[in-house]
């Protein structure tokens, strides 16, 4: 005559612990998915803002370069010459 294994039924406390554990696991999984989606969305937004910032910086750099070109002394002298203006050295005042 050998030992006959038999299952022991779960009592109320064990069932409650299993239910609470399962519920906690499901809630934690949902929170993990939600947090992951929020983080991905935030990364996407950050990438968009960085792209817009880079574009704005490039535009500002291009505009500064254009200002430099338009206000260059050689350009001013060329336009003045085309319009028939002459440079009178005595009328030039240097401000430091």
Automatic annotation (TrEMBL):
<keyword id="KW-0472">Membrane</keyword>
<comment type="function">
    <text>Essential cell division protein.</text>
</comment>
<keyword id="KW-0132">Cell division</keyword>
<dbReference type="InterPro" id="IPR011922">
    <property type="entry name" value="Cell_div_FtsL"/>
</dbReference>
<protein>
    <recommendedName>
        <fullName>Cell division protein FtsL</fullName>
    </recommendedName>
</protein>
<dbReference type="GO" id="GO:0032153">
    <property type="term" value="C:cell division site"/>
</dbReference>
<comment type="similarity">
    <text>Belongs to the FtsL family.</text>
</comment>
<dbReference type="GO" id="GO:0005886">
    <property type="term" value="C:plasma membrane"/>
</dbReference>
<dbReference type="GO" id="GO:0043093">
    <property type="term" value="P:FtsZ-dependent cytokinesis"/>
</dbReference>
<keyword id="KW-1133">Transmembrane helix</keyword>
<keyword id="KW-0812">Transmembrane</keyword>
<keyword id="KW-1003">Cell membrane</keyword>
<keyword id="KW-0131">Cell cycle</keyword>
